Fold:
Amino acid sequence: MIRVLNMFMFVANVAFVALLGFCYLSPSLNPEYFWPVALLGLSYPVLLVGNILFIVYWAFQLKLKFLYSLIAIAGGFSHISEVVQFNGRPAEPGGRQLRIATFNTQLQGYYEKKSFADTIGGFIKQNKYDVVCLQEFINVEKVLTSTLEKLKRQSGLEYMYFQVLDDKRKKGEYGSIILSRYPIVRSGKLEFENSGNLCIYADIAAGSDTFRVYNTHLQSFRFKKDDYNLLGDMPTDGDKAMKQSKGLLRRMREAYIKRAEQVQEMREHIDNYERGNMIICGDFNDPPMSYTYGQLSTGMKDAFIESGSGIGNTYIGKMPSFRIDYILHSPYFRAFDYQDHILTSDHRLVETTLKLGGSGN
Structure:
């Protein structure tokens, strides 16, 4: 009986090792060429835990087969720090510091016919952020004041760049915002074709320092209600399940390819920024084991890796939770005190403190 079980476990072990190996390709392989590898990126935490369990299983029997999974994990050891951290580092006193946050507001409750703009503005002021990047913000004109004016007043941040998307499905101005305590000396946008997404940027002058902040919201899967139902509870009707599965995979493929195009456009724009000191914030709609993260994190540091703790998942909606909201920064900065907060959205607000001048400051 044990022999049969071990044979089955060995076959499963080899499969997990192979899948983990292919998973490591996802940060560098453009989904346009072979998109299924991107799907494996989503399964990285499962494949990692599975291989750890195989190590325990074989080691308990004193069998060298545990080396298969051990070598597979060692081959991508650096990726573990992208999904779990234990080195939460509080902010250091003194020096030039910048408190920054990013948050996908989920339209501040637009679909629920509520408005959480007051909550967001008050939270920003309470936490004394210097720069805030908001995605999926909707500005609805009221009788006395607009949502945007109220946010600016309540946040206490004087400078703002708000870029609107042309989206006729919503009754209001819908887009992304960069709020700043310091003057914005230049701003602009990258509006992606055939998409309800965009990336905006602002050059911010803080004393003797000028740096660029990118606020991006990349292509999502745009799942429908049936897709969420399929992920949560497989239909008993086989034909219906097959049809829904094909539709879901088609939407995922289209999203991966479109997101890769958006990332390439961003990468080109980033590489043309001569100063080099920059921060990239936003909702990437992809986990760390992805082409999106692999491209945008090149030459950058990840605030979560530098000073986060725990799992770090930022999406808390209907799908399984992943870390898809990021604060990346050039080596000129050093991150401390990375935290996340649950407010009024299916995303967590992510914040960190950046010390200007890097480790030498």
In short: The CA atoms of residues 240 and 315 lie 28 Å apart. The chain is about 35% helix and 25% strand.
